[in-house]
């Protein structure tokens, strides 16, 4: 490598590090707001976050960044770089191109619009008043559509949006994947709803001491290999995981004193996200590759731990007696089977975030189909409630009493986040596909889980997924691990096997 | 005001706000490191703090800042500005002049030196090995002396250092003040040490549940008017107060399970600092004037609440029965008088931070005299141990067994902070002088305290001290409140009255 190239590369890496430093500060300011910052400091705090975000954005789109990238992308120079550095440069270039393609005043206009829309959405949801939100949502869809033209239309207009969250994922692929998944889980869900077997979940809703819940969450996180010397567990209204730096990956949960399951499964979920970020190869530290490679792969790791491990019978064979020792009075008459069935109860419902792991995918497919109609088929925003309600009736057999429990339930669209929802189901499908390979390569894995030995699973996942961070694309990663591209059959197989047994179908 | 002036002023205020935003982020990153950030994230975290600090410094010394200040300082323009804006500009100019006067490479050299020296100091203190620290301290004194030349020598060389912490304070003034104080408290301390009356403090050292201690600290903070919606109480190794923004002024304390007094008085102390910052006039928000006006005035507010209110008999007449209800087993046989005397026990000792409110001032006077010798009388650093030990013998009648319990006990000098120590005693003297005026203007104040009505005191202090933030100099403030400049007699009077009664002299 020439001396000039070396110098330019170092300058580029320093710039990366500086952006990461801004992101760490911004992350901590957000974390703090969610975990106990005093109410009266919030306004000034928000301005501080705004200032730092704008500084980070300036660096990402600075002349220095542009010059460095165009130097490093020269054929001879680029060829002399390592694979990781090439990917980092490509990533920054992709981001830069996207940002530069939209006029700055449009970006500002969109950020003002979405800020207003989120405030309007909150009230509209509360009052179940779609009419008051509709003009904002129409404007957001129109602007997002303009942005698609600026970014460049991929196979279809909606493809451009999907690619922002899951690089290289296409409508063609998702249509096929979701239709195969739908074909198997809709009948499964119908069979379950007709089954006379109805697990009793009432005992999950007794009074459970929050201090004990918190101790159990910490215990379970330690068991799965979450490193408390490189993270911490706090409480917030909505649970989240946040990687501030490789040695500081925090998670939050939320405790309900009348619900023992919620905090356990949100700890497992966020713990899965955190294991990913805690175990990224240290060579990537300080670069923008030291994060999850896509929303879908990130979600696969949270759902793998929450559902495929955390809601398995093997897991509770070991951990249920321990949970019972935390809550002897509440659980003394509840058997392992009763507990296992209760935490796996399937029920069609109206609200995505409360859905079980089977019907959850139907909530996502509905949103995917609607978003595709909005951007590829000119569905009018004002017709959304009708389409929404029809699809809920068709796929889940339920109809929202009003739009508050219908299409106003999610925050995403008010922020312009179209193309994001698919990630949640991608996570489920990736997770099942990865677990299928894990089962082959680690044939003893169920026995490990039954013995409370989770370390071999974490190590396998580190080896296959975690260590690479963003240095491999999701499509490359899934092929490298499982030998084939995204395949929904693994999720369908997993769900059928599990629920036919539980519901005696 | 001309349109141009208006525009320049706004630009200047925006720059101020941006610097404040950086400071808020840096503050939170520090707060987080002291209150529970995971160990493995510390290295990256420190780099992040370094990056943000350097960005804030760049703004403070930017060409933009220089141009704005020189525009705004033009005679005609300056005259058209409000008093607050004039002071803000003067403050920024003073800081800028100081920074610009020292060559950048000297600043870097000094910051490397002090970073190394602090690491050396820690080990040297631990091992009571002055010889290993001496070369670093000599170099720090030499460089600080060079800086004095760059900054400009005031009346004496040491005056230049004092002015950095307490604007306009002089050696001439402090010599007079400390000699008058010494003349009265040295005999008082001697009389006490010869008194046969020795308060029993052993009951303060029983086992005290930390959860209960924390509840009591929160209760006391609420009583003094600390606003928990604009702050929070956490635990750290060394207690501190930190104003992140006007609506977010945090404090920490430290709980010992074998000591009930430590956390109470550190909560009162940090609570006093916090009341100051929570009650600065909102017109100053977002400017560099929204902080305490000097170290000495800040310390006066912590000590006024910790000692003059918090260690008064009136205070515990109301609060001791309440404290006893938190710890019925430990305190049931302890009377109010016993408790009052125990928390006011005077004893000559070797360690400043463990000293009582009387002898504390002697620890400070010793440090003041030694610093003055270092900078004004060419005292050689290698002679420090001998001078230190002689002065401890002379003023406090004790001799350190080694330098670890002697001149190595404090961190300040390893960081180059000469001129800072005086602030602690200034705080005591300002506090007594302010309390003397409060007693005249609020003659019922002792009855208020006895009834647990602390709000009128907080309101009076807000009116006289807090609201002004840094918009009045300490010397102006003390004259405006009390009608005279700093006068040590009020502290001497207060200490004599209080301790003659306790020690039956």
From TrEMBL, chains A, B:
Pfam families: Peptidase_M32. It catalyses: Release of a C-terminal amino acid with broad specificity, except for -Pro. GO terms for molecular function: carboxypeptidase activity. Keywords: Carboxypeptidase, Hydrolase, Metal-binding, Metalloprotease, Protease. Its EC number is 3.4.17.19. It is an enzyme of class 3 (hydrolase). InterPro entries: Peptidase_M32_Taq. Belongs to the peptidase M32 family. Broad specificity carboxypetidase that releases amino acids sequentially from the C-terminus, including neutral, aromatic, polar and basic residues. This is Metal-dependent carboxypeptidase.
């Amino acid at each position: 490598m020439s001396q000039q190239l070396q110098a330019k590369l170092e300058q580029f890496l320093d710039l990366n590090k500086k952006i990461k430093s801004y992101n760490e500060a911004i992350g901590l300011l957000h974390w703090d707001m969610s975990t106990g910052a005093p109410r009266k400091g919030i306004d000034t705090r928000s301005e501080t976050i705004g200032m730092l975000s704008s500084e980070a954005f300036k660096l990402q789109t600075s002349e220095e960044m542009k010059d460095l990238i165009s130097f490093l992308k020269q054929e001879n120079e680029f060829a002399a770089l390592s694979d990781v550095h090439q990917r980092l440069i490509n990533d920054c270039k992709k981001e830069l191109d996207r940002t530069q393609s939209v006029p700055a005043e449009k970006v500002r206009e969109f950020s003002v619009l979405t800020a207003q829309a989120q405030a309007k959405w909150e009230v509209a949801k509360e009052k179940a008043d779609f009419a008051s939100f509709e003009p904002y949502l129409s404007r957001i869809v129109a602007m997002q559509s303009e942005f698609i033209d600026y970014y460049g239309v991929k196979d279809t207009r909606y493809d451009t949006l999907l690619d922002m969250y899951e690089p290289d994922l296409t409508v063609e692929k998702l249509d096929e994947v979701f239709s195969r998944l739908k074909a198997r889980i809709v009948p499964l869900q119908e069979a379950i709803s007709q089954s006379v077997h109805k697990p009793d979940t009432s005992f999950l809703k007794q009074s459970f001491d929050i201090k004990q819940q918190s101790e159990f969450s910490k215990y379970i996180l330690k068991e799965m290999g979450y490193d408390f010397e490189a993270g911490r567990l706090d409480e917030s209204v909505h649970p989240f995981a946040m990687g501030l730096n490789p040695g500081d990956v925090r998670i939050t949960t939320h405790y309900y004193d009348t619900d023992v399951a919620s905090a356990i499964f949100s700890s497992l979920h966020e713990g899965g996200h955190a294991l990913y970020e805690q175990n990224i190869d240290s060579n990537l530290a300080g670069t923008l590759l030291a994060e999850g490679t896509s929303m879908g792969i990130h979600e696969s790791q949270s759902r793998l731990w929450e559902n495929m491990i955390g809601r398995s019978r093997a897991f509770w064979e070991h951990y249920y007696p321990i949970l019972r020792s935390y809550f002897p009075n509440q659980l003394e008459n509840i058997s392992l089977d009763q507990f296992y069935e209760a935490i796996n109860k399937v029920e069609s419902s109206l609200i995505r975030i409360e859905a079980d792991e089977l019907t959850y995918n139907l909530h996502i497919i509905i949103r995917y189909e609607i978003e595709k109609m909005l951007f590829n088929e000119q569905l009018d925003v004002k017709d959304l409630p009708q389409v929404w309600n029809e699809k809920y009736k068709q796929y889940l057999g339920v109809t929202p009493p009003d739009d508050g429990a219908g299409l106003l339930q999610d925050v995403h669209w008010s922020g312009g986040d179209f193309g994001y929802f698919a990630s949640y189901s991608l996570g489920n499908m990736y997770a099942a596909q990865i677990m299928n390979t894990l089962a082959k390569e680690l044939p003893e894995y169920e026995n490990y889980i039954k013995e409370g030995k989770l370390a071999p699973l974490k190590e396998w996942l580190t080896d296959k997924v975690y260590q690479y961070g963003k240095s491999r694309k999701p499509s490359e990663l899934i092929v490298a691990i499982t030998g084939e591209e995204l395949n929904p059959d693994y999720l369908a197989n997993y769900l059928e096997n599990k629920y036919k047994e539980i519901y005696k179908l």
